[in-house]
Write a structure and sequence with these properties.
The chain is an alpha+beta fold. About 50% of the residues lie in helices and about 10% in strands. Helix 1 packs antiparallel against helix 2 and helix 6 packs across helix 7.
Length: about 270
């Protein structure tokens, strides 16, 4: 009984905390205060925290009470709920929509959908057989079992949108224009970011990252052509030079340690 009372008290204080933030006045650059009665300032650091606290009680706690046997994952305002049948999925979807409506929210009409997790055991055909979540695309993929046989499994790999975002980031570095830097400087500048990509997106089907990482080798070749006069205008010669460096220092760059080296030799392909 005491535990239940304490939980109720904690929830009350958290809701009061959220309410105070939603009603806190906004201070302008000139020092004036703007009174507000709802919402948080756009781009403020408190907005994700308040939203996460709100959804914890509006969604997470409610789901555990209403559907204790269902597994689900939520990150910010994106969620995946696992159902055993289409009928159950429709029921849960309508229930969630009703719950969100009670809280003044609504599901995104384009992003909310029921997905059939097709694999070797589930062989039916449905309109939706893939979905994106946290930078990964989940869809039927060919897998290799322990006995060496191939079969279809429903697995994640880095999404096309995530690859495009990383490509834009890689392009923004302008590696080929940094002729004032040494090869070691470039490795020091970008290895942490590239290693982060590998650590996160390389968890499943890391071979999907190889085209992006090979592009970094191409930028290094262009950098070498710009850096050294003897390599200027000689792409093939610059490639051979970079191959020799990679063989001499195979751990210089994070993607070289993965096996994506300029000589085309890749290790650990999945």
């Amino acid at each position: 009984m005491l535990r239940a009372v304490r939980r109720h008290t904690d929830e009350r204080w958290i809701l009061l905390y959220v309410e105070r933030w939603l009603k806190a006045p906004l201070q302008q650059e000139d020092g004036t205060l703007v009174q507000r009665d709802r919402g948080t300032p756009q781009g403020s650091s408190i907005s994700p925290l308040v939203a996460n606290l709100f959804l914890h009680y509006a969604f997470d706690v409610w789901m555990r009470k209403q559907f204790p046997d269902l597994q689900f994952e939520r990150y910010c305002d994106d969620a995946v709920v696992h159902c055993v049948s289409e009928q159950q999925a429709l029921l849960v979807r309508d229930a969630i929509a009703g719950r969100l409506a009670q809280c003044g929210l609504e599901m995104h009409p384009a992003k909310t959908r029921i997905v059939y997790c097709k694999d070797a055991d589930r062989r039916a055909t449905y309109a939706n057989e893939r979905f994106d979540f946290l930078g990964y695309t989940f869809r039927p993929r060919l897998s290799k079992g322990k006995a060496g046989k191939f079969f279809v499994n429903f697995l994640p790999a880095v999404s096309n949108e995530a690859v495009k975002a990383m490509s834009r980031e890689l392009w923004s570095w302008r590696i080929n224009c940094r002729s004032d830097k040494s090869l070691g400087d470039l490795a020091h500048m970008f290895n942490k970011v590239v290693q982060g990509w590998i650590n996160y997106y390389g968890r499943f089907y890391k071979s999907r990252l190889y085209p992006l990482l090979r592009r970094m080798n191409e930028y290094l070749v262009r950098w070498a052509k710009r850096k050294y006069k003897r390599l200027h205008g000689h792409t093939r010669r610059a490639k051979r030079w970079l191959v020799r460096v990679a063989r001499r220092e195979p751990k210089l760059f994070a993607h070289w340690k993965l096996g994506v080296r300029p000589d085309g030799w890749t290790m650990g392909a999945v």
